[in-house]
Amino acid sequence: MPGPWDTILQVTERSRTRALTAAMGLIFLVGVIVLAWNVPLPLVAYSPGPVTDATDSVTVEGAQTYDTDGELVMLTVAGQDINAFEALVAAVDPSVDVLARQVVRRPDESDEEYRRRNLELMDQSAQTAISVALSRIELPQDQWAVYVTGYAADTPAGEVLEIGDRIVALAGQRIEAAESLADVMEGSAPGDRVPLEIERDGQVLSYEVELVPREDDPDTPMIGIYVRQLPFWVDIDTGIVGGPSAGMMYTLAIIDVLTPGSLTGGHVVAGTGTIDIDGKVGPVGGVRQKVVAAEAAGAEYMLVPVDNLAAAETAPRGDMELVAVETIDDALEFLRGLATA
Length: 341
What we know:
CATH topology of the largest domain: Ribosomal Protein S5, domain 2
Strand content: 25-35%
Shape: globular
C-alpha cells in the first residue's frame, strides 16, 4: 500500500508533466506566431491611403488663376505585402481588400521596377490631364509656345535646361511649334553644337547645346528633351504617388484653377478615375478603399467611373453620395449643377 510520500511524488510528477506540456505548447504557439509574422505570402493588402486637395498640386505661370472654395479631393490607396498574421487581421477589416500579388505585379518585377512603372503612369496621366483640361477652356490659339517638360538623362541639354523653360529659338530660328524643332535640326548630325535660346523667369538665356543621337536611329540628332506646346506653363506636382487613377481629378483641378468661380460650389467633392486624351474616365483599382478614404475626408460626393460603381457601392459608407461618370464632361456637368454650399 503506497504511503503519503508516494502520493505526493505522483502528484508532483503529474504537475511537472502538465507544466512541461504547457511549456512545449507555448513554445510551439510562439513558433507559429513568429513563423506567421516573418514568412511573407504572395498577397497584397489594399487599405485607404492619404488624401489631398488636387488643386494644391497645380502650378500655373503666365496666366491668371482663381481662388477656389470647397475641395477636389484626390484619393489614394496604400498597398503592402503581408504575412499570414496580417492576412488574418485584414480578413476581418471591411475597409481592406487582399489580392494575389500577381494581380498587381508583373512576373519577376522588382519593387524598384514596380515603383518606377507606377510613377511613369502617373506622369503620363498628369500630362494627359493638362491637355484635356486646356481643351475644355477657351484659350487664344496664337499664344501657345513650346515648353520643356523633361529631358533624357546624361545629355548636354539636361545640364543647362530646366523643366518649365520656354523654347524661344534653335539655331537662330524662332520656335513656335513643337514640330519645328525636328525641322530645324534637319541637316545636322549628332555631335554638332547649336545655339539655343530659352525663356526662364522672364529672362531670355542663350546656350550652345550638343546634339545627341536618337536611341532608335543613331544617325538622327536630337536635343534630348521632352517638350509640349502650351498656352502658358502648367505643371502638376504628383509627389511620390504612382499610377494613373488621379487623371480625372487633376483635370478638374486645372479647370477649377484657371476659370472664375469654384467648380465645387464650396462643397467637398472626392473622386477617382483615369483620363484619356478624349476625356473618357476609366476604371481604377482600390475603389472600395477610396470610398472609405473619401468619407473620412468629409466628402459629400464622390465621382466614380461607371465601371467601378458596383464595387464602390459595396464599401462601408454613410451619407456620402456616389456619382457615376463616363467622361470629364459628365463630371463637369454634375459639379456645375451643384447648389452653392
